[in-house]
Amino acid sequence: MGKLGKKARKFAKKNLQSVLKRKRKLKSMFKKKVSKRDEQDGAENLEDDQIGKSNGRDLEGENIEDVALDAVFSDESDVVEDDSESDGYLSEDSGCAYLDENGSESNQDDMDVDNNGASDLLLQNKEILLQLTEKKKKLERLQKKDPEFSKFLESYENGIEKLRDEENYSDEDNTSDDGTQNPRKGTVNLRKDKLLTSSALNSLCQLVREQHSMSALTSLLNGYRAACHYGTKPSSLLDVDSCCGLQGSRIFSKILIFMLEEADNIFRGRLGISCSSCKKETILELNNTSKWKAMKPLIKSYLRSTLFLLNQVTDSEILAFTLVRLRASIIFFAAFRPLLRRLIKIAVHFWVTGEGTLASHSFLVIKDVASVFSSDCFDSCLIKTYKAFVCHCKFVDPVSSKHILFLRNSFIELCSQDVQNSSRKAMVCVEQLSKILQMGLRTKKKEAVKRICSWQYTNCIDLWVSFISANIQDYDLQPLLYMIIQIINGVAVLFPAPRYLPLRLKCIHWLNNLSSASGVFIPAASFALDILEYKTGKDNGKPGKDFNFSSSVKLPKHWLKSRNFQEKCVSSVIESLAMHFAQWSYHITFPELATIPLIRLRKFHDTTTIESFRRVVKRFIDQVEQNIEFVQRKRDEVAFSPKDHQSVETFLQLEKSSANAPFTQYYKSIMGKATSRNLLMNQKIRCHYFSLTWL
After folding, report:
1. CB-based contact 469:489 (threshold 8 Å)
2. 583-606 residues labelled b (16+ CB within 10 A) or e (exposed)
3. Tens of pLDDT along 159-208?
4. Three-class SS of residue 389?
C-alpha cells in the first residue's frame, strides 16, 4: 500500500477516531510530565527574578498601572455573606423552635462551626434547600402548563391564611400563672399581617421592662425589624407606617428608640453579663448554654436589623446615635462573624465619608472592634481603613483637608494599638511607595511622574511619617525610618523646578519632623537653600492673588512671576532653616552644622536687591551667629573629648530644658508669625471657596 497523500493525512488527523483517541492519551501523559517539572521551572523563574533585581532591571515590564497604592494588600472579598437563609422574622410561638420560611430551624442554622454537630446540620440544610428548589421548579413548570391549577393553589393558600388568622390572632390578654404570656392564647404579639397600635406597643415595652417577657421581646424585635426595613421592598411583614394611620411615624420612632436604648441591657440582663464586660470570651463561654441558645436568635435579629438600618438611613444624627448604641453591643458580634465583617465595612465607610460626630463615632466602633477582637480583626480593620484613606485622599481642597487630617490622626491612633503588627503593614506600604518612585526616577514618563506628584502619593507619605514620628521613641522602627527618608529625598530630587515649591516644602517639613522625633540628624538644609536660587521673574514683579500652599502640590505658571511667590520663597526658607537649626541649636556640633548654610545665606544677602528680603535674611544670620558663639564658648569650657559619646549627648541639656537661649526665642517668634499668617490666608481662601461653590 502506497504512502497517503497530503489531503488524506489532513483528513485522518481531523476525523479518524483512532487518531483522536491517541491525541487524548498523549495529552494526559504530557500533563503528568509537566506537573513534575513545575518545581524546577519555579526555581528557575525565582533565580531569573533575583538576577533581574540584582541588575536593576524590571523583568515584569514597566506597566505603571500594575503598581497601585490601594492594591498593596491582597484583595479581600467585600461580599459579606450571612450565615443563614432566614428572612430575620422570629416565630412568636414559644412552644416551637424558631423556624424560617424554608422550614429549617434558624437557631440550628445559625450555629457556628465551633458547635458540636454544626457541620452535619449544615449539610442537612443544604440537602433540604436543594430539594425545595427542585420542588419549586416543578411547581413553576406546572403553573405554566395549567394556569387553572395555579389559581386553585392561590385560593387554597388564601383560605389557609384566613383560618390561621382566626385561630391565632385575638385581642384578649391571657397570661400564665408564672406571669409570662402564653403565645397560644391571644397574647399581644406582633405577627405577620398584624397591625401594631400605639397601645399595643406600650404594653409590649412594659412587659419587657417589668416582667421580662420573652414573647413580648420577640414581638418587639419583629416590629423593630419591620421598622428598619420600612420602605425598602414589599414584604409580608408589618408595614409600620400603615399601623395606625397618622400615628405611624410616632410608632416608627418609638420602637427604634426603645430597642436601640434598651436592647443591650435586656440581652445582658438575661444572659447575666455585666454592663462593663467587653471581652469576647464572655460570649464564647456561654456558647453551649441553654440561656444563650434561647437568646441567640433574638440577639442576631437585633444586630442584623440594626446593620440594615445603618445602610438605609441618611440622617447623620440618627446614624451617629445608632452607632453609639451598637458599639455597646460589640461583644455579641463574637458569635456572628459575618455580621462582624459587615459592621467593619459599614463603620469604615462612615469613618471616611462622614463628617463631625458621625466620623468620630464610626472610628470608635472600628477601634473597639480592633481592641475586642484583636487577634482576629485588627488586620482587617487596619487594611480596610488604609485602603479607604488612600481612595479618599486623591483630591484635596480647603474644606476636605481638615477631614483628611482627622483620618490621618485616627488611623495612627488605630495603629498604636499594635505597633509591631502595624509596622509590618507599614513596611509593605512604604515598599509600594518606593516602587512607584523608582519607576518615576528610571523612566521619567509623564504618567509615572504624575502619580508621584499627586495628593494620593503625598498623603500616603505624610501618613507614614506621622506614624513613625509618633512611635519611634518606644519601638524599633529604624528600617522604616531610613526607607521613608530615602523616598522623601527621591521626591525632592525628582521635582527641583519652582512650580513644585509646595511639594519641596512638604519634603523639608517631613524630614524635620522625622529628625525631631527620632533624634537622628537628617540634612534638610540643602533642600531649603536651593529654593533661594529660583529665577522666575523680576525683583519688582506685581503682587499676585492669594494662594493656599497647604491644598496644592504644584503652582500655576502665572503665579511664578508674582511678587508673592518671591516672598513665599524667602519666608519658607527662613522658617524651614529655623526649624532645622532649632533641633540642633544646643548640640555640640552646631558651629560646624551651620557653616555652609551661613555661606549660602550671605551670598543671597549680597546679591538680592529687595530690601525686605535682605532685612529678614540678615536677622536670621545674626541669630545663628550668636548661637554659634554661645555653643563655642560652652564647648571651650568642657574637658571631655569628642569620643566620649555619653558626655556629648548630655552637653547643654540643662540649658535646653530651660529653653531660654536667644535662638530658641527667635524660633518661637518666627513660627508664631507663620502660624498666624497661614490662618489668615486659609480663612480668606476658604471664604473665597465657599463663595464660588454657592455661585
Report:
1. no
2. bbbbbbebbebbeebeebbeebbe
3. 655 554 444 434 334 434 333 344 343 334 444 445 667 888 888 888 98
4. helix
